[in-house]
């Protein structure tokens, strides 16, 4: 994943940064010298991570509590980020969760929340920050995808469909911005240490086996 050079006037936005892959990506970005804006529902966890990043890497780390499943809360996020007076040159759309079980027995509102977080939020935030990246001629967007998006997945129908959308959306927008200094990708492996990636993958496999 090609990243712009760190700059004191810019930052990387990471959603779902309170734990797991999001927190590890935030750590790696900070290690590379990028200021970060951490977004998730659990602000107390974000504050702990921000404190760690400031002390360890001496970067600017801001936190914004936001429930991305709530449209009004999500729609206010770009304005809240703008108030920090930082250019968003890296956007990591990582926030998400997975429903499981027969779709006919699923909670309709939970399924819709999943679409709001996994589909609507990446589209909304990409729409908010991509135009300025293109204008500046630099920027990077990582939409954290999943192998679940590569085929229909019974008993995870909504999740696999959402990830399939994200893959297709990312590939299409990447082609649109080729050659202007902006990348859009679903492959952020280099931003997650291999040991952590293996641990998280094992945890997800265990969770899937239990459903």
Describe this structure in words.
The chain is of the alpha/beta class and about 210 residues long. It has one domain: NAD(P)-binding Rossmann-like Domain (Rossmann fold), CATH 3.40.50.720. Helix content is about 50%, strand content about 15%. β2 (about 35-40), α2 and β3 form a beta-alpha-beta unit. α4 runs parallel beside α5. It is globular, with a radius of gyration of 17 Å.
How are the elements arranged and paired?
Layout: E1 10-15, H1 20-31, E2 36-40, H2 43-57, E3 61-65, H3 71-82, E4 87-93, H4 108-136, E5 139-143, H5 157-176, E6 182-185, H6 194-210
Parallel strand pairs: 1-2, 1-4, 2-3, 4-5, 5-6
Helix pairs in contact: 1-2, 3-4, 4-5
The poorly predicted ranges are: 203-211
For the biggest sheet, the summary is: 6 strands, parallel
Number of strands: 6
Distance between the termini: 33 Å
Approximate shape: globular
* Rg computed from alpha carbons, rounded to a whole number of angstroms: 17 Å
H-E order: EHEHEHEHEHEH
Helicity level, as a percent range? 40-55%
The CATH architecture classification is 3-Layer(aba) Sandwich
CATH class categorisation: Alpha Beta
Structural class: alpha/beta
Core attributes:
Rossmann fold; alpha/beta; 211 residues
Give a summary of the structure in a few sentences.
By secondary structure, the chain is an alpha/beta fold. The protein has helices spanning 20-31, 43-57, 71-82, 108-136, 157-176, 194-210, and strands at 10-15, 36-40, 61-65, 87-93, 139-143, 182-185. A six-stranded parallel sheet has the order 3-2-1-4-5-6, with helices on both faces.
């Amino acid at each position: 994943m090609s990243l712009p050079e760190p700059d004191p006037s810019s930052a990387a936005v990471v959603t779902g940064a309170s734990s797991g892959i999001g927190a590890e990506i935030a750590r790696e970005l900070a290690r590379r010298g990028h200021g970060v804006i951490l977004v998730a529902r659990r602000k107390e966890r974000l504050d702990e991570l921000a404190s760690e990043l400031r002390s360890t890497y001496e970067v600017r780390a801001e936190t914004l509590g936001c429930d991305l499943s709530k449209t009004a809360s999500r729609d206010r996020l770009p304005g809240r980020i703008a108030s920090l007076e930082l250019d968003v040159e890296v956007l990591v759309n990582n926030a998400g969760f997975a429903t499981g079980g027969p779709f006919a027995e699923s909670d309709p509102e939970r399924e819709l929340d999943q679409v709001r977080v996994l589909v609507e939020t990446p589209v909304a935030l990409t729409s908010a920050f991509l135009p300025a990246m293109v204008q500046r001629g630099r920027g990077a967007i990582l939409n954290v995808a999943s192998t679940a998006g590569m085929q229909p997945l019974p008993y995870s129908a909504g999740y696999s469909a959402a990830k399939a959308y994200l893959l297709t959306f990312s590939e299409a927008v990447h082609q649109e911005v080729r050659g202007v200094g902006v990348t859009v990708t679903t492959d952020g492996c280099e931003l997650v240490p291999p040991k952590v990636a293996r641990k998280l993958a094992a945890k997800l496999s265990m969770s899937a086996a239990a459903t």
